[in-house]
Amino acid sequence: MTNAQTTVIPPRAAVKPTELTTHGHTRIDNYYWLNDRENPEVITYLKAENEYLETVLAPVKEFREKLFDEMKGRIKQQDESVPYKEGNYYYYTRFLEGGEYPVHCRKPGSLEAEEEIMLDVNEMAKPYSYYDIAGLEVSDNEELVAYGEDTVSRRMYTLRIKNLKTGEIYPDAIPDTEGGSYAWAADNQTLFYIRKDPKTLLGYQVYRHTLGTDPEQDVLLYEEKDNQFYMGLGRMKSKKYIAVVSDHNGVATEYRLLEATNPTGDFKVFLPREKGHEYDVQHLETTFYVRTNWKAPNFRLMEVKENKTDDRSAWKEVIPHRHHVYLEQLDAFKNHLVVGERKDGLIHLRVIDQQNKQDHYLEFADPAYVAGIGYNPDFNTNILRFGYSSLTTPSSTFDYNMDTKEKTLMKQQEVLGGFDTANYTSERFFVKSRDGAKIPVSLVYRKGTPLDGSAPLLQYAYGSYGYSIDPTFSSTRLSLLDRGFIFAIAHIRGGQEMGRKWYDNGKMLKKKNTFNDFVDVSEYLIQHKYTSADNLFAMGGSAGGLLMGAVVNQKPEIYRGVVASVPFVDIVTTMLDESIPLTTGEFEEWGNPKIKKYYDYMLSYSPYDNVKEKAYPNMLVMTGLHDSQVQYWEPAKWVAKLRTMKTDDNQLLLHTNLEAGHGGASGRFEALKEIALEYAFILNLVGIRE
């Protein structure tokens, strides 16, 4: 399994040893110095890596452009979302021909009315190389919109306010806010928001702002003292309450509520935080519905009257706990409850009639799919909007009559270029891992693709934070499938596809299950002739990038190539440094290495610390200079160390987007260039260059 590189000499980062001692154990980090983005030598090195990548991939430069044009050509450029009605307006977004960004629009009273443009993000983005809008919150009088603006990709949003009647952007610009965590009070004058710490990038303070006043005079209402908690803020569906949520993933939740008609009042705790208790809340008339893991690892549904929330003896069970079903989603209507239940790795939408307590499930035909409750702002309706997609079915929006069970397709993503779902097939099966766990696997390929071991296959996974990777459609993926690739998703532990235990058994001191599951699925795919070691590729990003790093250390010989995007690979050093953004909130995911048992365990799998003198697969590593989640120096250090230690002549390439962060480039087309790079890298290795 060789792929000789060009004779161009790859960059070598300078070796500057730094001693790092913890628990009496000393590590030597030769590339620690790369963590200074203000150092010109660092930028020079990153640019040299980018230039090296372009040189190595020069033979497929035109192919990259072809892939980009091909993927762009499948996108309906002039497109529009399905409108939804809220208040007196219908809201929707549309894209213009050639436009990178959405135009947010509304129409008063009827879809036949004249369009009002709220925000044309294409125009707003023109002065910037990166631009992102987060959260549009319209005031109760429907005259103002609050939104967040990020021009750097650090997820530090400036809160801005626009008058929708006059078009004026108010001078009330508030920096360093949590994007999208905004809520108007009912008086149309008071706005609540979360301010983030510029060092840790954690939202930690709730403020009240009065329109037209100096933001310096804003009132601090609450400060989160525990930096392991993440915060969110928003107006509840009933519009009666503004909610502040403090959440420590997998550990505890705490809601604070304030009636929107009393903006100068005090937030009241719904139920005080308690270690091990997670909950979320929906309000309907005089009742709260509580999705809770209290004595219910897979969650159950309770209800409680408004004035009894902090008395759990007053909570009444609506849906009991079930060991084989994970209660994941909830929406409340006047006459119905809708819940999303995950069973055997798939979401099932269940409708409960509030009047007669009878229930039924929506039916879906695909073997692997994802369904989700959509945005339903109206309580007084029997129409449920939900989304659906599968590996062969483009993203679809449905309206469902919960009484008559009539399902209406409102819109399906239009895929240009002759796409026909009948040309593709998907499979779903379970793979037994080395410890007996049954790992769900979702597969898709073009009909006619040989299943004799000769086909190339790209295996993807994530496996962290309880985040489930569902089998969704991707129009960009067609560029692989149409060239003979099989695409597989391994639903490994660390996600939540199979319930809460699936997550618990892939975190902390059980993290290695995540890596073992991925490798065991890979070996199954080889043994059962879906592919071969010479044709198997792996891909993962962020925590999935850590997965890639652990996998290539454990079993490099079974992969032809690996793509690791914004990979979290220097886990020990990062988790020891609480000044790095987001570190403290991660202790319940990985463990705190200041405690020796966690230090030893993390060190035993940390990709950066476990690079050895051996052969590695072809590798493409992607990062962003302004990444707020995984700092750019982790992948940069990893590549630098791999260069000095690997014994093969396979490709090792690092691409740093010098203008973007964790999510990559902004804009719907610009981001395709990075996908085209990844696909060209993979396809080139199996000799496909057109």
From TrEMBL:
It comes from the Bacteria. One of its GO terms (molecular function) is serine-type endopeptidase activity. GO terms for biological process: proteolysis. Residues 19-413 form the Peptidase S9A N-terminal domain. Cleaves peptide bonds on the C-terminal side of prolyl residues within peptides that are up to approximately 30 amino acids long. Has an absolute requirement for an X-Pro bond in the trans configuration immediately preceding the Pro-Y scissible bond. PANTHER family: PROLYL ENDOPEPTIDASE-LIKE, PROTEASE FAMILY S9A OLIGOPEPTIDASE. This is Proline-specific endopeptidase. Residues 472-687 form the Peptidase S9 prolyl oligopeptidase catalytic domain. Keywords: Hydrolase, Protease, Serine protease. The lineage of its organism: Bacteria, Pseudomonadati, Bacteroidota, Cytophagia, Cytophagales. Belongs to the peptidase S9A family. The keyword Hydrolase applies.
